[in-house]
């Protein structure tokens, strides 16, 4: 059976969790508490870089969320979660990579505010806001009259971007200037797999405690 090692607060973990649910696969969900469990020897055998998520399937340990998504898509291709058309595939891939390489790093600047913690460098916050605005405009221009990026069906583009974009209003970044993306986000958060994987208040508080302990060191 597939086993997913994850942390419920992690967007990287969540995108794999959602994909497993969307594909209707049987899997075991193992929570790794980020208070030090990620450094334990048993987990380092699976994920030597002590990162989550990690997927174990048929004796293979797969790390890095995008690699895990590619693995699931190749081995469990139904339902298909990547377009076949070259242009549409390029759009889906761009959304994935821009989310991981540009949007998520900028969004992490606002984690203290998201968790109700003090702190935040004003210069870094301004830089992050500018980067996020560029990404949101880019995404807005990629959306057409289809409900998903370059597709009539749910793809990995929405799975990846959809674990980050809904966080933005929580930290004070409005989507009101991006009507297509705003509608896309509203459609997303009503989806059952997003609701099923939403971090609980307990998970948020636990992560908040970990961050506060690190900041006190």
TrEMBL record:
<protein>
    <submittedName>
        <fullName>Glutathione S-transferase family protein</fullName>
    </submittedName>
</protein>
<dbReference type="InterPro" id="IPR004045">
    <property type="entry name" value="Glutathione_S-Trfase_N"/>
</dbReference>
<dbReference type="InterPro" id="IPR040079">
    <property type="entry name" value="Glutathione_S-Trfase"/>
</dbReference>
<dbReference type="InterPro" id="IPR010987">
    <property type="entry name" value="Glutathione-S-Trfase_C-like"/>
</dbReference>
<feature type="domain" description="GST C-terminal">
    <location>
        <begin position="85"/>
        <end position="217"/>
    </location>
</feature>
<dbReference type="InterPro" id="IPR004046">
    <property type="entry name" value="GST_C"/>
</dbReference>
<dbReference type="InterPro" id="IPR036249">
    <property type="entry name" value="Thioredoxin-like_sf"/>
</dbReference>
<dbReference type="Pfam" id="PF13417">
    <property type="entry name" value="GST_N_3"/>
</dbReference>
<dbReference type="Pfam" id="PF00043">
    <property type="entry name" value="GST_C"/>
</dbReference>
<feature type="domain" description="GST N-terminal">
    <location>
        <begin position="1"/>
        <end position="80"/>
    </location>
</feature>
<dbReference type="InterPro" id="IPR036282">
    <property type="entry name" value="Glutathione-S-Trfase_C_sf"/>
</dbReference>
């Amino acid at each position: 059976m597939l086993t997913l090692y994850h942390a419920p607060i992690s967007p990287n973990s969540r995108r794999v969790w959602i994909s497993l649910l969307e594909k209707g696969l049987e899997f075991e969900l193992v929570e790794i508490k980020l208070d030090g469990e990620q450094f334990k020897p048993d987990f380092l055998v699976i994920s030597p870089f002590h990162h989550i998520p990690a997927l174990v399937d048929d004796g293979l340990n797969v790390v890095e969320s995008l690699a895990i998504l590619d693995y699931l898509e190749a081995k469990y291709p139904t339902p298909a979660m990547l377009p076949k058309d070259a242009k549409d595939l390029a759009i889906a891939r761009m959304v994935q990579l821009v989310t991981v390489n540009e949007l998520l790093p900028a969004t992490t600047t606002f984690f203290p505010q998201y968790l109700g913690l003090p702190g935040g460098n004003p210069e870094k916050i301004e830089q992050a806001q500018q980067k996020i605005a560029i990404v949101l405009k880019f995404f807005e221009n990629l959306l057409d009259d289809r409900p998903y990026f370059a597709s009539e069906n749910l793809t990995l583009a929405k799975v990846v971007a959809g674990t980050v974009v809904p966080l933005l209003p929580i930290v004070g970044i409005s989507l009101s200037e991006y009507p297509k993306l705003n509608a896309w986000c509203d459609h997303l958060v009503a989806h059952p797999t997003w609701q099923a994987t939403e971090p609980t208040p307990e998970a948020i508080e636990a992560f908040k405690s970990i961050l506060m302990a690190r900041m006190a060191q």
